[in-house]
Amino acid sequence: MHFTVKNDEEMQKLGHDLARVLEKGDIVYLSGVLGAGKTTLVRGISRGLGYSGRVNSPTFTLLNIYPAPTQIFHFDLYRLEDSDLHDLGWEEYLEGDGISLIEWPEAGEGQFPREAMFIDIKLCDDDYERERVVGICARGEKYQHKLEELKALVDTGY
Predict the structure, then answer these.
(1) Are the CB atoms for 100 and 93 separated by under 8 Å?
(2) What sign has the CA pseudo-torsion 133, 94, 107, 109?
(3) In degrees to the nearest 10, what's the CA dihedral of 135, 111, 116, 11?
(4) Nearest C-alpha neighbor of 102 from the set 76, 66, 120, 132
(5) Which of 89, 100, 115, 143 has the fewest Cβ atoms within 10 angstroms?
(6) CA distances from 55 to 46, 65, 100 (A)
(7) Closest CA to 14 of 156, 153, 145
(8) What is the pLDDT of residues 11-64, one digit of tens each?
(9) 157: pLDDT confidence band, cut at 50, 70 and 90?
(10) What whole-number distance in Å separates Cα of residue 87 and Cα of residue 152?
């Protein structure tokens, strides 16, 4: 499924819609070049889950935890060193009672669960000022259902 997003507000709106289909224990992988809008999408998801505080890319800390009715674990693995992922104890977070949003998941490839929602954000014409194409796919029956729910929400506006 693909969406064209024209600006930050639309990216956050897509995130807010996505939040409506997520629940405890869900995992969302976010890929795209630096500045594509991954953290903006996370901001929308976080707002949709009831978190009103600051949402930053945790590039230098690897993980931010946002207290919301359902806790949000925001990983950014861009600067990940080989041992950092193991030292982080990521298994506890992914198997816990929160929602895990993981930027740059390819850094931990082969170590994370395969069943999840996958989001890839692409710039149009390599231009940071133009719209983006957001591709969303799912692996696993649970996530396939969530993808269908999201499509219905976006298509109907509800």
Answers:
(1) yes
(2) negative
(3) -40
(4) 76
(5) 89
(6) 8, 10, 14
(7) 153
(8) 999 999 999 999 999 999 999 998 899 999 999 999 999 999 999 876 677 889
(9) low
(10) 40
- Whether the CB-CB separation of 56 and 142 falls below 8 Å is answered with no
* Res 71: pLDDT: 94
Number of folded domains that form the chain? 1
Given a contact cutoff of 8 angstroms between Cβ atoms, the answer to whether 26 and 112 are in contact is no
Q: How far is CA 65 from CA 28, 34, 40, 46, 100, in A?
A: 15, 21, 16, 11, 9
Assigned token pair, 5: 């997003």
Q: Where are the beta strands (DSSP E) in the chain?
A: 2-5, 27-32, 63-66, 72-76, 99-103, 116-123, 132-139
C-alpha to C-alpha distances, 34 to 66, 91, 154, nearest whole angstrom:
22, 26, 26
- The residue type found at 143 is Y
Going edge to edge, which strands form the sheet with 2-5?
2-5, 132-139, 116-123, 27-32, 99-103, 72-76, 63-66
CATH of the domain at 24: 3.40.50.300
Helix-, strand-, coil-residue percentages of the chain, each rounded to 5: 35, 25, 40
Q: Which domain holds residue 134?
A: 2-156
